[in-house]
Amino acid sequence: MTIAQPYQAILEQICSETIAPAAPAVDRDGAFPEKSIEALKLAGLLGAMSGPEVGGLRLGVPGAAAIVGRVAQECGSTAMVLCMHYCGTSGIPYPPMPEGRESSQWR
Q1: The domain 4-94 is classified under which CATH number: 3.50.50.60, 3.40.190.10, 1.10.540.10, 3.40.50.720?
Q2: DSSP letter at 19?
Q3: Where do the domains of the chain lie?
Q4: What pLDDT is attached to residue 85?
Q5: Distance between CA atoms of 19 and 103, rounded to whole angstroms?
Q6: For position 98, what pLDDT does the model report?
Q7: Which of 61, 40, 35 is nearest to 50 (CA)?
Q8: What DSSP state is assigned to residue 58?
Q9: How far apart are CA 80 and CA 23, in angstroms?
Q10: How confident is the model at residue 79, as a pLDDT?
Q11: Residue of 34, 39, 51 whose CA lies nearest to 14
């Protein structure tokens, strides 16, 4: 089983059981998709861009884009928040470097 299979299965479950049912109210009320983002967080999907060293999945841009694309099929608002989260976390795929080490030595 690849890392893609487990994350895709849980993503499908979250999309059908949490994101899709909440989408009409999120859009109608202009609300933050709190339950949807929390479900993605609890499943570890907010860490798609980060490395395992900091608890992430290290799926990179293609993996994160696939997650956002799937979420967008159910709720554009949740997908936008998720995309902005990935943009903000894209710079922390590795743990902080020890003092005195160059990034090329550490990665």
Answers
A1: 1.10.540.10
A2: I
A3: 4-94
A4: 94
A5: 38
A6: 60
A7: 61
A8: -
A9: 13
A10: 98
A11: 39
The type of residue at 89 is T
Amino acid symbol at 70: R
Amino acid at 92: I
- Check: CB of residue 19 under 8 Å from CB of residue 71: yes
List the pLDDT tens digit at each of the 107 positions of the chain.
345 557 899 999 999 999 999 999 999 999 999 999 999 999 999 999 888 877 888 888 899 999 999 999 999 999 999 999 999 887 664 555 566 555 444 44
Sign of CA dihedral 84, 43, 69, 80: negative
Number of Cβ within a 10 Å radius of residue 40: 26
DSSP secondary structure code for residue 50 in this structure:
S
Residue at token pair 């487990």: 6
